[in-house]
Amino acid sequence: RPEPLVLGIETSCDETGIGIVRGRTLLSNTIASSMDEHARYGGVVPEVAARAHLEALQPAIEQALGEAQVSLQDLDAIAVTSGPGLAGALMVGVGAAKGLAVSLGKPLYAVNHLVGHIAADILAPENGADSAPLEYPTIALLVSGGHTSLLHVRDLTTDVELLGETVDDAAGEAFDKVARLLGLPYPGGPQIDRVAADGDPKAIRFPRGLSKASDLAKHRYDFSFSGLKTAVARWVERAEVAGEEIPTADVAASFREAVIDVLVTKALAACADRGVPRLLLGGGVIANRRLREVALERAAAAGVAVRIPPLSLCTDNGAMIAGLAAELIASGRPPSTLAFGADSTLPV
Ligand code: KG4
Ligand code: ZN
């Protein structure tokens, strides 16, 4: 059976992603981001994101088709993120996908954004022809501006278990908020990363959220970053009141270390508890060099193999959505009926 040609639409946050795959082969991955429009607000504004998707979708689809050198009629299926994410933003993608599927008479696949992040890892040739395919089971840690989730993946198409997630801010959101606090521009992740390079990660001992024995009983795999953000705010306030100069590099490095420590500790705890010697990383925060370094180092010590897809597939994109649908098609999954909507809290 020939491999299915699938167009994927991703609009769950501020990236309008259109991807085209043939089976596991990536043909195009176009991304239009409205990040600049959110910069002056210091975070993604849902209404602004939704409007931007509406404007960006058509040109992005045309660009993707051009890059892949295929036409809409060639497609075997349309795929779209139906959740989780920002409701209004999701609705734009879902509406467009339904319109395309109906007008073209093609099957439509509604897929889960988080599972899509896992599917990013199977797309060739971005991963290099010699890279081994994703092996199961694996633990997956997905960290972005919109989510922070830990999953146990036994099979991409049939068996993905959510182990835990953030109970308040996402990790990327914490980076963005702390950057703002330190007077750094949005998005804050890369800024904190840059400033922290000259800082001492041990200078200030910031709290590790949900890591006390009493928290672990109920929240072993959950994350919390709002207490950390408040701790940084208090520390800076105190220093200001005392008339001290703020050691921005040390604050940034210590904050970054606290986030990374919790992420890596909990991900490796899941690997150990579940007897799974593999860890897949995904989401835009994976761009953080220190996170990759600490994860690789501590995983190696624990005998866990780490996989990190190329960054263009780690951040939100349509290719991973198309790739997941191609896997679903290969596994014999029937298409979705048109009776689905956008579900901002869609479970895996
Ligand atoms: O996956 P992504 O591109 O999309 C959304 O979540 O919308 O992730 C963006 C997030 C932002 O919060 C940004 O500050 C964070 O990822 N980020 C980083 C770094 N680069 C981007 N966080 C920490 N360190 C970085 N180097
Ligand atoms: Zn995402």
TrEMBL record:
One of its GO terms (cellular component) is cytoplasm. GO terms for biological process: tRNA threonylcarbamoyladenosine modification. Keywords: Acyltransferase, Cytoplasm, Iron, Metal-binding, Transferase, tRNA processing. Its EC number is 2.3.1.234. Its main location: cytoplasm. It catalyses: L-threonylcarbamoyladenylate + adenosine(37) in tRNA = N(6)-L-threonylcarbamoyladenosine(37) in tRNA + AMP + H(+). Coiled coil: none annotated. It comes from the Bacteria. GO terms for molecular function: iron ion binding; N-acetyltransferase activity; tRNA N(6)-L-threonylcarbamoyladenine synthase activity. It is found in: Cytoplasm. Substrate binds at L142, V143, S144, G145, G146, D176, G189, D193, N288. Binds 1 Fe(2+) ion per subunit. Its cofactor is Fe(2+). The keyword tRNA processing applies. Fe cation binds at H113, H117, D316. Belongs to the KAE1 / TsaD family. Required for the formation of a threonylcarbamoyl group on adenosine at position 37 (t(6)A37) in tRNAs that read codons beginning with adenine. Is involved in the transfer of the threonylcarbamoyl moiety of threonylcarbamoyl-AMP (TC-AMP) to the N6 group of A37, together with TsaE and TsaB. TsaD likely plays a direct catalytic role in this reaction. This is tRNA N6-adenosine threonylcarbamoyltransferase. It comes from Microbacterium esteraromaticum.
